[in-house]
Amino acid sequence: MELSFPTKPFRTHGGAAVPHRKNTAQVQSVVMPAPKEVAIPMQMHVGAPCSPLVKPGDLVTVGQKIGDSKAFVSAPIHASVSGKVKAIQKIQLSNGGYGDAVIIESDGKMEPCPDLKAPEVTDLKSFLQAVRDSGLVGLGGAGFPTHVKLNVPEGKKVDTLIVNIAECEPYLTADNREALEDTANVLDGVFTVKKMLGLSRAMIAVEKNKPEVISQLNTLLTTDSRNDGQTVHVMPLKATYPQGAEKVLIKACTDRVVPMGKLPADVGCIVMNVTSIATLANYLKTGMPLVKKRLTIDGGAVKDPKNAIVPIGTSIHDIMDFVGTKKAPAKVLIGGPMMGMAAATIDAPVQKQNNGLLFLSEEEAHLPQPTACIRCGRCVQGCPMHLIPTKLEEYVKVQDVGALQKFDVMDCMECGTCAYNCPAHRPLVQAIRLGKSLVKAGGAKK
């Protein structure tokens, strides 16, 4: 059955009117020079960690594979600079945990690996192998291996690709710049994935506060012979938070609801971040795997906010030196202010799935003291997953795992809308995170 496109987005529930603060939306990306050293973690994805394929003293080049795993849910890891392997050791990551990393002293030359070449793709199997070889993971923040996502399980019928350029968090503009600066690869990636998976249609979902992206994509699609059947469509979305969340995006684009505990493929959809789709297209042309990331670098402590393309494994400290600060940051966030996490250390490296660094001033980082809940219901009205955050907070306090499960705590996407909307400044999303941990721990004991 031929699928049509909706004339306007479908209505979604809840959300928050967060300030956009897209200060770098019109700022052309700059390439950061190779740092003196990178620390490349052996796990930058959901699934099994990689084992190092190099040893101290080895010389490596950009794009050379330095880590891999035999596990299906995993993704290989590649050198982001050329130089010498200094050490393989445990380092502290931005989330405070520790993990193995390959430390490379850069020679400053950024020499590409001589073995790199475009993969030969002839069928779905070779395509999925190429996706795995690229080291690609979800670049919108989750870090789920892309070859696993695109390997649709037998018995499931997927008909729609949704490319996510919503980028609804304040400050972040890296995806916006990806769409503008690498449009050809974005469209090449869309048509390739659509063809290889036999999908009926593809929607490129863009919030309306990015008119330049919408115009540029529409102009190119109008003249692209691959879109003669008009099966690829730009879908302008209302600029509201959390429009870019996977389940919200699917509802807005298709009116399909992903049930609790299910995946987009269960309702016939695959969602890919715009940078993921463009990176895949570039790999299929050049053989250069995922070794760099475009980041939005902003915040009140930053002297010159910008979008920068940095080698994966570059330390937050080196990036801070690159952009310059006008005052010492009171807090450093990895990602946006709604779903981002405070960095445990500025010595931590940038990972594949990172899309922004916010160096916040004291004023921006200040959190008001929570007061008693006034039963206003704004958290319930705002929750895109129809949850009752105040109830969940109560059950977390008494560690009632059964009640947490009954009230669907695991369906929370941790978007932070409840906490943002709360006039009493209750730390609702933090409590819900703890509740999810209690449920997981309880399940592990059974």
Helix content: 25-40%
Q: How would you classify the helix and strand content by structural class?
A: alpha/beta
Overall mean confidence score, pLDDT: 95
Strand content: 15-25%
Return Rg in Å: 22 Å
Question: pLDDT below 50 for ≥5 consecutive residues: which ranges?
Answer: none
Side-by-side strand order of the widest sheet: 1-14-13-17-15-16
Strand count: 17
Biggest beta-sheet profile: 6 strands, mixed
Give a written overview of the molecule.
There is one protein chain. The protein has 446 residues and is of the alpha/beta class. 29% of the residues lie in helices and 19% in strands. The protein contains 14 helices and 17 strands. The strands form four sheets. The chain has a six-stranded mixed sheet with strand order 1-14-13-17-15-16, with helices on both faces. The protein has a four-stranded antiparallel sheet with strand order 2-8-7-4, with no helix packed on it. Strand 10, helix 5 and strand 11 form a beta-alpha-beta unit. Helix 4 crosses helix 7 and helix 11 packs across helix 14. The radius of gyration is 22 Å and the shape is globular. It starts with 29 loop residues before the first strand and ends with a helix.
Summarize the structure.
The protein is an alpha/beta fold. The strands form four sheets. The chain has a six-stranded mixed sheet with strand order 1-14-13-17-15-16, sandwiched between helices.
Topology (SSEs and partners):
Layout: E1 30-31, E2 37-41, E3 51-52, E4 59-60, E5 65-68, E6 77-78, E7 83-92, E8 98-106, H1 124-133, H2 146-150, E9 160-165, H3 174-181, H4 183-197, E10 201-207, H5 211-223, E11 232-237, H6 246-254, E12 269-273, H7 274-286, E13 292-298, E14 306-311, H8 316-323, E15 331-334, E16 341-342, E17 356-360, H9 362-365, H10 378-382, H11 389-397, H12 401-406, H13 417-421, H14 428-445
Helix pairs in contact: 4-7, 11-14
